[in-house]
Specification:
By secondary structure, the protein is mainly α. The chain contains five helices and two strands; from the N terminus they run H-H-E-H-H-E-H. The chain has helices spanning about 1-5, 10-20, 30-50, 50-60, 70-85; strands spanning about 25-30, 65-70. It has a two-stranded parallel ribbon with strand order 1-2. It is globular, with a radius of gyration of 15 Å. It starts with a helix and ends with a helix. The model has no long low-confidence stretch (mean pLDDT about 80).
Length: about 80
Amino acid sequence: MDVEMLRPENAERLWAAGAGGSSFYVCGRTGFAKAVMEALQAVLARHAGDEAARAQFFALVGEDRYQQENLHYLCRSALRTAAVF
């Protein structure tokens, strides 16, 4: 996924989506979510520079426009709940 996100044509679309007010919701295992987050940060840095990219990413998070869910924890939690009943 991260390789696809970093391709110039896809990176341009991600940049435009973020600049246009889109939200990003990532759901998957920890390694996948981390790879997506790092790829998005790399796209932001490519367009805005490292310092501005960091501020933009934190703004996305602060505005609830970037969210992650980790399936590993959700599944484990659901299994524990199911076992109680």
